[in-house]
Amino acid sequence: MKEPSDKPEALANEIALAAGSRVGATNERIVAIFDEIADLLDVENANPFRVRAYRNAARSIGALTEDVGAMLARGTDLATLPGIGTDLAGKMREIAETGGSELLTRLRRETPGQIQMLLSLPGLGPRRVHRLEHDLNVHTMEDLAAAAREHRVGMLPGFGPRTEQRLLDAVQARLDRHRRFSLDVAMRAVDPLMAHLRSCGAAQDLAVAGSYRRGRDTVGDLDIAVASGRPQAVIHAFLAYGQTRSVISAGSTRASTVLMNDMQVDLRVVPASSYGAALVYLTGSKAHNVALRKMAQARGLKLNEYGVFRQGRKIAGRDEASIYEALGLPWIAPELREDTGELDAARDGKLPHLVEARDIQGDLHVHTNESDGVDSLEAMVMAAGRDGLQYLAITDHSPRLGITHGLNASRLAAQSDAIDALNAKGGLPTILKGIEVDILEDGSLDLPDAVLGRLDLVVGAIHSHFDLPADKQTARLLRAIDHPHFSILAHPFARLIGEREACRFDAVRVFRALAERGACVEANGQPRRLDVWDTGCRLAKSSGVQVSIASDAHRSADFRNLAWGLTQARRGWLEAADVLNTRSLSRLRAILKKTM
DNA sequence: GCCGTTTTCGGCCCGACTGTTTTCAGTCG
């Protein structure tokens, strides 16, 4: 459940990113400044509740869906926001107007060095950083490494030789370290580990919790909840797992290890009567949990990983639903637990009926070996049928993408004949004729209108010039969307997780254009893409744009990517009605017709 | 520094594990 610092990747911030650093950029800046102020105050031994006030405020601002600059322009009183009083409202205004903060400038002057970097080292918190700064004059990673090598760190009160060595290791490991893992990599680690834990016979119930269960686009570590009356046996089996590289800690109910693939795993064992509470606790997010505990406290209750307690007596804990019920709430799907409005929605009976796997009727982005896919048209259609799909669209690449052996007009015509023949045979999912057409640098499409007009749908995507300035990228996409045959904007941000940054454009304008044209946006389910991801889905919904959850399958096994795309859609609060490919074939055709 | 269906003062989310302390602070999730 380790979060990237303490702040959820907030809707406002990601929309800011998407919009090319205009909409919401103020929020992003305030969050960064407040978090840094909190770190610096913490190291200075300031009142811990003052520190917390800055962290709470940062989290609260991070969850806003509206830009603070816009709110100020409208005359909104920022002190009405949760966790914001007159003082912080003033600092927010200062940041919005000047881009900086006098307090931060002063704190930085008083506490020079890489405080935030030092704090990010495992085992190093504000108290120890304070000690290092004052007693050893350590301000940077280099200072720390030097002091540790000279064994000056281990001499400090509260430190010892083991801490010293761990810090030295941590500084060195920092250089070549993969922080987060894609979901498919995580899944390949999860499945055998869970099978191993089940086989020990001491686990009555177990589940992976944490960001993996919430369906975040990447996973930092694995959190596993286990119900057992024999915790020692479970811990023993866990430590003995064959893929374990090292043991970080091991107690009577809890242990942490690192797997061979460098992924950290945290295991927690509780009695079956507390399993639901442990699952809530380990699933997080941290922000969601903090909010839940505050709700509990407001009702005179206490919530921890063992249950909900009233005056020391347990009133819930066995399953998750009982925990939420004790707090007066319906059960909340893990994908929504980010403290971005789900608790208010739950309290008001306004939680969305999230789209489910069984709602998905087809897949509108599929490749074959005619372009860069591995399997033939027939094999892909058969596989789609086995996976229960009613229809699929074949969308091979267009010619410009030479490396993919993209289809020109005549090869597309030949593929069309093959599709007609397969459709005529019947008994298989209906095949729609499509193309993943390249959106060229100027926003034109890579095939003539006459060719595109003969297809059932046109999926457009950019595969080059990812780093255009935001205004040019926006214009490029707007021109493409305006094309008379344009149906679906595929993987709009063209990001590759951990490899390529999302490209920058004004997402609000682009989505508005999609809505006006009756066109759709794709939630691409390839685990390295996940594009659009949760926040984009939410923006689509608020913009009135339908989302196509797509596998972008390049081989018959890839239809499972639909599940990853579905998870992002659920994290984006989408219901079946918000998703294009939950429609029956006839409804789908009617919707597509509007764009053709 | 924020906040109030017990409160405008006195609270602020909760518990396990480690390394260091010889009774617990610091860190982490």
From TrEMBL:
InterPro entries: DNA-dir_DNA_pol_X, DNA_pol_lamdba_lyase_dom_sf, DNA_Pol_thumb_sf, DNA_pol_X_beta-like, HHH_MUS81, NT_sf, PHP_dom, PHP_phosphatase. Its EC number is 2.7.7.7. GO terms for biological process: DNA repair. It catalyses: DNA(n) + a 2'-deoxyribonucleoside 5'-triphosphate = DNA(n+1) + diphosphate. Keywords: DNA damage, DNA repair, DNA-directed DNA polymerase, Exonuclease, Hydrolase, Nuclease, Nucleotidyltransferase, Transferase. Residues 25-338 form the DNA-directed DNA polymerase X domain. It comes from the Bacteria. Residues 362-441 form the Polymerase/histidinol phosphatase N-terminal domain. Pfam families: DNA_pol_B_thumb (PF14791), HHH_5 (PF14520), HHH_8 (PF14716), PHP (PF02811). CDD domains: NT_POLXc, PHP_PolX. GO terms for cellular component: cytosol. GO terms for molecular function: DNA binding; DNA-directed DNA polymerase activity; exonuclease activity; phosphoric ester hydrolase activity; zinc ion binding. This is DNA-directed DNA polymerase. It comes from Pandoraea eparura.
